Automatic annotation (TrEMBL), chain A:
Belongs to the ABC transporter superfamily. Energy-coupling factor EcfA family. This is Energy-coupling factor transporter ATP-binding protein EcfA2. It comes from Cytobacillus firmus (Bacillus firmus). It is a peripheral membrane protein. GO terms for cellular component: ATP-binding cassette (ABC) transporter complex. PROSITE patterns: ABC_TRANSPORTER_1, ABC_TRANSPORTER_2. Gene3D superfamilies: P-loop containing nucleotide triphosphate hydrolases (3.40.50.300).
TrEMBL record, chain B:
It is found in: Cell membrane. Transmembrane (T) component of an energy-coupling factor (ECF) ABC-transporter complex. Unlike classic ABC transporters this ECF transporter provides the energy necessary to transport a number of different substrates. Keywords: Cell membrane, Membrane, Transmembrane, Transmembrane helix, Transport. Belongs to the energy-coupling factor EcfT family. The lineage of its organism: Bacteria, Bacillati, Bacillota, Bacilli, Bacillales. This is Energy-coupling factor transporter transmembrane protein EcfT. InterPro entries: ABC/ECF_trnsptr_transmembrane, EcfT. Forms a stable energy-coupling factor (ECF) transporter complex composed of 2 membrane-embedded substrate-binding proteins (S component), 2 ATP-binding proteins (A component) and 2 transmembrane proteins (T component). It comes from Cytobacillus firmus (Bacillus firmus). It is a multi-pass membrane protein. It comes from the Bacteria. The keyword Membrane applies. The chain crosses the membrane at residues 26-59, 65-87, 117-134, 244-263.
């Protein structure tokens, strides 16, 4: 399912002394099957953008097209359930949304809200719990007896069981240890590959963005600062550094090396392997181009 | 939805009311609550209304903001009005339609009592809109200080108050966040039959309770690790000072009270 934001503006608390714009003139296209990363500082408007993707927020200006549905400011929207089912959002700290007595019931909550039968929901729960890498025995436990990392996975399973076409992740690895982070990101990446799930990842981490995404959008002060493929974004890192945003370690290394050796490699490398190949090639030739 | 709530919300602005000592504001509100009951005819109620709107004007809080924020309370006021209209059976009959009979006294009392109610809400809203919660508790603590002599735990009470006031916005944000998360999972909070809607409260309330308990515990640990041990010998960073404008405001209220007392029937 394609999603497209066209010149979207959103103001919080319209008609109060607290009125302020959160995002303005944001245009982003998310064709079916894309892995898109949205990067920006806290308060840059990334979370606001994210809430437009399944019509939790209605733009105050511009329009959002989700599949065949068009969300515009003037019209009151009804029957948003279909959109909500097809676009699953995993919010930041999703473990805070757990409430049922057992893990199984909690995972079934989403699908059953969308009219799936109890039997089918339970089947999906079993499948989803496997996908997030937890044993099936956990289904009968109370979600509040689990560890933080397990709770996070259960909450993610709750969204996966809705079987969405698009999955939106708001800093899914915040507060996890490095191993947990990698496991969860790898899991989303493989889901993206095997199920053809469009994935939107909101993150601080340049490493994650450069490793997994095919498109990157950089947000700054509520506007789209830059968008493109990771290569395009990181080939001119000066702008990013000026905004106080990080660049991936590999890119940083390459920059430093280029500066101190006063050479220039032929391309910006995003992975360690790429960079070593490039360096090896330069050494073989004896000169950098 | 949460955007429009104005309870416990502070609107920063530069105004006389904002700069008043929280103690004088609290005393003023307390006295106002008493004085409201002095009014018993058109003229006195009129005076009270004028005074209230004068105070709103002084506070520089946009009236439209107060209006949208108080809309839900307005329903309650209207409900009070109708309750009196239908249930008071005194005075002459004004109007009869089927089983509905409206008496003169009912109309009079209905209007006056709901107006009184409305004015009280307005005045207390001005207090919370122009005073930060911390100022309110500081003021309260200072006003209640004499009670320390009879072993009343004034400081603890003030602390409890400031903690709960402090967490209202946090709780609101949390509610909003969880509502969104559950909506994204297909929960429907805004439509459907009442029975269904009551059920949708559970996915909202349980996470809210869980996080509140967790937060309370974290707060307790944080306070203890910073050596908190109650109010004994504790100095204050924020000093209260009572100025001329505070005395003037109270004097104005006293004058109003006197006039009301003379004009009431």
């Amino acid at each position: 399912m394609d999603i497209s934001l066209q010149n979207v503006e959103y103001r919080y608390q319209v008609n109060t002394p607290f009125e302020r714009p959160a995002i303005k003139d944001v245009s982003i296209d998310i064709p079916s099957g894309t892995f898109l990363a949205i990067i920006g500082h806290t308060g840059s408007g990334k979370s606001t953008v994210l809430q437009h993707l399944n019509a939790l927020l209605k733009p105050t200006e511009g329009q959002v097209v989700i599949g065949e549905r068009k969300i515009i400011p003037e019209k009151k929207q009804k029957n948003l359930k279909e959109i909500r089912q097809r676009v699953g959002i995993v919010f930041q700290f999703p473990e805070h949304q757990l409430f049922e007595e057992t893990v199984e019931k909690d995972i079934c909550f989403g699908p059953m809200n969308f009219g799936v039968s109890e039997e089918e929901a339970k089947k999906r729960a079993r499948a989803a719990i496997g996908q997030v890498g937890l044993p099936e025995e956990i289904l009968s436990k109370s979600p509040f007896d689990l560890s933080g990392g397990q709770m996070r996975r259960v909450a993610i399973a709750g969204v996966l069981a809705m079987e969405p076409d698009v999955i939106v992740l708001d800093e899914p690895t915040a507060g996890l240890d490095p191993r947990g982070r990698k496991e969860i990101m790898d899991m989303f990446y493989s889901l993206h590959g095997t199920r053809g799930l469009s994935t939107v990842l909101v993150t601080h981490s340049m490493e994650d963005a450069s490793r997994y995404a095919d498109q990157i959008v950089i947000m700054h002060n509520g506007e789209v600062y830059k968008k493109g493929t990771p290569k395009e974004i990181f080939s001119s890192p000066e702008g990013l550094l000026k905004l106080g945003l990080d660049v991936p370690e590999v890119v940083r290394f390459q920059l430093k090396m280029e500066k101190s050796l006063n050479i220039r490699l032929s391309k910006t490398c995003l992975t360690m392997d790429e960079l070593t190949d490039e360096i090896a090639a330069v050494m073989k030739r004896g000169t950098a181009t | 939805m949460m955007d429009k709530m104005i309870f416990g919300r502070y609107v920063p602005a530069e105004s006389v009311i904002h700069r008043m000592d929280p103690r004088s504001k609290l005393v003023l509100i307390f006295l106002f609550v008493c004085i409201v009951f002095l009014a018993n005819n058109l003229l006195t109620y009129g005076l009270l209304t004028v005074y209230t709107f004068f105070m709103i004007a002084l506070s520089k809080v946009p009236i439209r903001f107060i209006y949208t924020g108080l809309k839900p309370v307005l329903l309650l006021v209207i409900f009070t009005l109708f309750l009196h209209l239908f249930l008071t059976k005194e005075g002459e009959v004004l109007f009869r339609f089927g089983w509905i009979t409206i008496y003169e006294e009912g109309l009079r009392q209905g209007i006056f009592i709901s107006l009184r109610f409305f004015l009280l809400i307005l005045m207390t809203s001005i207090l919370t809109l122009t005073t930060t919660p911390i100022e309110i508790t500081d003021g309260l603590e200072s006003l209640l200080n004499p009670l320390n002599k009879v072993k009343f735990p004034v400081h603890e009470l003030a602390l409890m108050m400031s903690i709960s006031l402090r967490f209202i916005p946090t709780l609101m944000q949390e509610t909003d966040k969880i509502m969104k998360a559950q909506t994204a999972r297909g929960a429907d909070f805004t439509s459907g039959p009442i029975k269904e809607r009551i059920k949708t409260i559970i996915p909202l309330l349980i996470p809210l309770f869980v996080s509140s308990f967790k937060r309370a515990e974290e707060l307790a640990v944080a306070m203890e690790s910073r050596g908190y041990r109650g109010g004994e010998g504790r100095t204050k960073y924020r000093q209260l000072n009572w100025g001329l404008k505070d005395t003037a405001m109270l004097a104005m209220l006293a004058a109003l009270a006197l006039v009301l007392f003379l004009l009431r029937t």
